[in-house]
Specification:
Layout: E1 10-14, H1 18-29, E2 33-38, E3 51-54, H2 60-68, E4 72-75, H3 82-89, H4 98-104, H5 107-116, E5 124-127, H6 130-140, E6 144-148, E7 158-161, H7 167-173, E8 179-183, E9 187-197, E10 203-214, E11 217-223, H8 229-246, E12 250-259, E13 264-270, H9 288-296, E14 310-316, H10 327-330, E15 337-340, E16 351-358, H11 362-375
Parallel strand pairs: 1-2, 1-4, 2-3
Antiparallel strand pairs: 5-8, 6-7, 6-8, 9-10, 9-12, 10-11, 11-14, 12-13, 14-16, 15-16
Helix pairs in contact: 1-9, 2-3, 3-4
The structure holds adenosine monophosphate.
Length: 380
């Protein structure tokens, strides 16, 4: 039986970035109140939430008083310490469960969980010292990628090894941290599946989204992906299997490498709404953020139907390098929708917003958002 949290109740959110902001916008639409908790202030989520608590995640006194002031807790940021989640769970339900976060916030644990459940992962070795790394590089071959086990995202904490001479330097860069060495996958495409699972086991998904990265950071996503029906079915089946095995409640994303022989390998799991799912916010009947809200609150999940093929282009801080971008020029195409996250400092590589569009085909939608992004900086 689902535990229903009714509108006008308060949802607690750990984390305060753009994912929490879009979650809060959806929650507000349905008449919920939102209380965000993070070490920062005037945050993307805090600007939209009813209450913003600024405290460290290891301040368990603050965590407990936060948990007592809300009706249920969820996340927009997965690197919340286990003790923090456990302290909150003394008072309220936390979705997804703390154990799922614990597994997915560490590449070792995540890969072992996946491999243990028969889900294909990149060949990998766990590394704690330089000797292990030397052995692992000779076993997996070059090129390969050394990644920190924890706290890595958008290519941070990663080092590509292209010859045995790189080993020492790569190790020194990530010194003192548990690492994973992965074989380098010569993929055809990167794709993802965003899904939601309810407290009663209802499962919905948005099909397969195609993702293009630049400098390890997501650049453009489009849906539906231009891939065979067999690959779509396989990707959705694997995603569902992962969600079931976890007993997952909320929105989850699985990122895959699609190899040239049409096999899928899981790269990583995001236990929350995901950047590639931003193209569901507007172009779909129910966004990935509303699904998270519905799942956490014990409500039926919504339709994942797209109003049309869709695409999204990220806006990084680099777009501000020449001064204020030309928003008028970008929005000259009436199909294009602008989302900005309320961040005041446009640093290079920082996700500041995105553009989304629907069109006749996913490729045309991608063209529309790319062209709009280009116009942001074109001399008029
Ligand atoms: P990650 O933080 O693990 O998602 O890595 C960020 C991006 O780096 C991925 O989306 C890929 O574009 C690239 N990448 C990471 N691991 C590998 C790998 N083992 N083989 C090839 N490319 C990779």
């Amino acid at each position: 039986m689902a535990k229903i949290i009714s509108p006008n109740s308060t949802i607690g959110v750990f984390g305060s970035g753009q994912l929490g902001r879009m979650f809060a916008i959806e929650a507000r639409k349905l008449g919920y109140r939102v209380h965000t908790f993070s070490p920062d202030s005037d945050t993307p989520t805090g600007q939209v939430a009813d209450i913003e608590t600024t405290a460290n995640y290891d301040d368990l006194y603050e965590v407990r008083s936060f948990a007592q002031s809300v009706d249920v807790v969820t996340f927009e940021f997965e690197n919340v310490p286990s003790a923090t989640v456990a302290a909150a769970a003394e008072f309220v339900d936390v979705h997804p469960r703390g154990e799922i976060l614990h597994t997915t916030q560490n590449r070792w644990r995540e890969k072992e969980f996946l491999a243990g459940n028969g889900i294909p992962v990149t060949p990998f070795r766990t590394i704690t010292n330089l000797d292990e790394l030397r052995v692992a590089v000779s076993e997996l071959g070059v090129p390969c990628v050394l990644k920190t086990a924890g706290f890595g995202y958008d290519g941070k904490g990663q080092s590509k090894i292209t010859s045995l001479d790189d080993v020492e330097l790569a190790f020194d860069k990530l010194v003192g941290q548990e690492c994973v060495l992965e074989a380098f996958v010569d993929f055809e495409k990167e794709v993802s599946v965003v899904c939601a699972r309810s407290q009663t086991g209802e499962f919905v998904h948005y099909g397969v989204i195609e993702n293009e990265h630049a400098n390890h950071i997501l650049d453009v996503s489009l849906a539906p992906a231009n891939i065979s029906t067999k690959v779509v079915d396989d990707a959705v089946a694997m995603t569902r299997e992962i969600a079931e095995r976890f007993g997952y409640v909320g929105t989850m994303c699985v990122e895959f490498f699609l190899t040239r022989d049409e096999s899928l390998i899981v790269n990583e799991i995001a236990p929350r709404p995901h950047n590639s799912g931003h193209l569901t916010f507007g172009p779909c009947v129910t966004s990935q953020f509303e699904q998270q809200l519905r799942a956490v609150c014990g409500l039926p999940l919504g339709s994942t139907e797209f109003y049309g093929p869709a695409a999204m282009a990220n806006l990084l801080g680099d777009v501000w390098a020449g001064g204020e971008p030309d928003w008028t020029a970008a929005l000259a195409d009436p199909r294009v929708k602008l989302h900005l996250y309320g961040k005041s400092e446009p640093r290079a590589g920082r996700k500041m917003g995105h553009l989304a569009a629907t069109s006749e085909t996913a490729e045309q939608a991608a063209e529309a958002v790319r062209a709009a992004r280009q116009r942001l900086n074109s001399p008029s």
